[in-house]
Amino acid sequence: xxxxxxxxxxxxxxxxxxxxxxxxxxxxxxxxxxxxxxxxxxxxxxxxxxxxxxxxxxxxxxxxxxxxxxxxxxxxxxxxxxxxxxxxxxxxxxxxxxxxxxxxxxxxxxxxxxxxxxxxxxxxxxxxxxxxxxxxxxxxxxxxxxxxxxxxxxxxxxxxxxxxxxxxxxxxxxxxxxxxxxxxxxxxxxxxxxxxxxxxxxxxxxxxxxxxxxxxxxxxxxxxxxxxxxxxxxxxxxxxxxxxxxxxxxxxxxxxxxxxxxxxxxxxxxxxxxxxxxxxxxxxxxxxxxxxxxxxxxxxxxxxxxxxxxxxxxxxxxxxxxxxxxxxxxxxxxxxxxxxxxxxxxxxxxxxxxxxxxxxxxxxxxxxxxxxxxxxxxxxxxxxxxxxxxxxxxxxxxxxxxxxxxxxxxxxxxxxxxxxxxxxxxxxxxxxxxxxxxxxxxxxxxxxxxxxxxxx
Length: 456
Prior knowledge:
By secondary structure, this protein is of the alpha+beta class. The chain folds into three domains: 1-72 and 255-430, CATH 1.20.1330; 73-102 and 215-254, no CATH class; 107-210, no CATH class. It has ten helices and 19 strands. Strands 1-15-3-11-12 form a five-stranded antiparallel beta sheet, with no helix packed on it. It is elongated, with a radius of gyration of 46 Å. This is Flagellar hook-associated protein 2. Belongs to the FliD family.
């Protein structure tokens, strides 16, 4: 409310200050509504924090509900000759690998040129590159008056050349060196008509050729050759990367480490969820501070349903029926504790049984499947959490409407006060004028100022 500076001038009273005080007192009615709105906003933020922790646990649980996790294999190789990776089509087993030679790319270094600035040809020409596989043969266009660097650049700019060109200084001059882009005998460059292309200078020495070769190895005594040092089909489902000559023993086995890490993530994200819920519902008696969701029914419902699923018995599989069989137990405070040694033992003895416990035979059979159903319901738009958020948002809308109505009522009340104060100011001003007039008239009556003809 804007103050009226002229209010009270007529009466001499501080009616403007009084009106401002009344306005502040009336607007105090808005503070409880503001506080209630802030409380609901804090709740929505807290629900969002809880939702984030719940989604994190859902992601970790979905990993355990994927049956392929328990069928994944890992490949490890001894020695430095081979590195390997197992794919979904691999089978457990052990393989003796002997790498006899690595695949190399063929290369050709041309005759020597004394000076890089020497012009090689006086007319347009073609540098013919010849390969073991004649389907790769290609001619590179060389412009007239090209230097060795110009020839190099022309080769590298030709996407069909199948070689990479560079210049090598052998201590006595410069050579154009071309190397096949692919390894193996068939992709090797074996000749170039460089000497025929050069017309303006005398070449020295001879071209230097290094043959390309295929990789040669034995897998369990079976000879294998390959144009590349990466073999995708020598062992079904296994990719071999040859690193050097020598012997290696390759072992393909169940990837227990991936499963164990998934279980660790499951436990950690559940505990983070529990700690978040505890923080939001805690009460600190020392300082009287209460969590933002203390006593909230949605949080209690979420905790109750998850605890019920975790403590339940799974009927799929013969070996493991409860989390405790895999080293996971619920502590008194509601968090999970993991015995990693017990989990490792269970995975070593029967990874399939561990998979059956978590993933089951169908998507909802195992422990993870059961939890996944619960989590989807909790996070659904019609679930307890979204319902609580929606309820808080509706309360904010209602409180905002109430705030607006109250504010309008206050404005109307102050406007009424202002009108009444204006009337009062006018009335008092008129009374003051009347009083002044009467005082003046009385003072002018005979005998009021000590003058006149008296007896003395």
